[in-house]
Amino acid sequence: MKKKLALGLCAVAFSIASGTTAAEDYEYHPAFSDSFDVVLGYFRSDNTFKITADNINFATGGNDDIDFGNSLGVDQTNSLLNAQLRWRFGSKRMWSISGQYFKNNANGDATLKEDVEWQDVIFREGTFVGAGVSLAVTRLFLGRSFIKNNRHDFGAGIGVHNLDLSAYIEGEILINDGGTGFHRGDTAESQILPNVGAWYLYSPARKWLLRARVDWISAEIGDYDGTLWNTNVGVNYQFARHFGVDLSYQYFKLDVAVDSTDWVGGVEATYSGPVISLTANW
Q: What would the DSSP string read from start to end of the chain?
């Protein structure tokens, strides 16, 4: 599936490049003049997951995090779709609304090298367990350009990230009568976090665009208390009037404590890696 997605993106880009005959009627990169941008990318992500459920010590700040990658064998590298869009509007298109979506499902299994406590249940050393983490991120952002001309665009604004996070561990546990039994512990949480952010675009030549974006928050919001970073840095080549290819580096980090009726614990998750994309603009 992963290979088919990558080959499909390359095939679409090649067919468009070979079949496009529209005149190049732009004097500088269309990112500065067109109203709409759409980006569909293949995100090769390196993942880290350190999570607790019900056994974190908030009073002492004790570090009882479970490393889902190293300890439980959950995939530390996988591929996913990264979709982005942007609409510019208003006088001289100084205002914009943008969005981003990606979802990462990572699973694995391992034989435990030490006891693991999860939701007040202990999976003993030597137990074979399965585990998984899922995080879906939906980003919406309203921004305004403060410096904008044919080659530069600097702006800032406010936005929200909707986070749907879930995790589980399953395997044999030691029960009170001395025997063993199968147990699966699931936990999930959904939260909307506001953020501030900024971006910068620079076009060194008509077909080339360099860009950077960062979103950030550090606050106590709802059931979450912690920090979120979402950044992207990349370069775009406009091979036709309405189409381009893009290579970027995506970095997303969530480091929060969770205190809700469904989940009491903490999450430290990082997704980072290269993204190759096909872009469309009009």
A: -HHHHHHHHHHHHHHHHHH-------SS-GGGT-SEEEEEEEEEEEEEEEEEES--BTTTTB---EETTTTT-B-SEEEEEEEEEEEEESGGG-EEEEEEEEEEEEEEEEE-SS-EEETTEEEPTT-EEEEEEEEEEEEEEEEEEEEESSSEEEEEEEEEEEEEEEEEEEEEEE-TTS-EEEEEEEEEEEEEEEEEEEEEEEEEETTEEEEEEEEEEEEEETTEEEEEEEEEEEEEEEEETTEEEEEEEEEEEEEEEEESSS-EEEEEEEEEEEEEEEEEE-
228's torsion region: left (phi>0), alpha (psi -120 to 50) or beta?
Answer: beta
- Domain limits, the chain: 2-281
Per-residue pLDDT of the chain (282 residues; tens, 9 = 90+): 555 545 554 554 444 444 443 445 557 899 998 999 999 999 999 999 999 887 543 333 444 689 999 899 999 999 999 999 999 999 889 999 999 999 999 999 999 998 888 888 888 888 899 999 999 999 999 999 999 998 999 999 999 999 999 999 999 886 665 667 888 999 898 999 999 999 999 999 989 999 999 999 999 888 889 999 999 999 999 999 999 999 999 999 999 998 887 788 889 999 999 999 999 999
Chain-centroid distance of CA 148 in Å reads 28
The answer to whether 171 touches 141, Cβ cutoff 8 Å, is no
Architecture of domain 2-281: Beta Barrel (2.40)
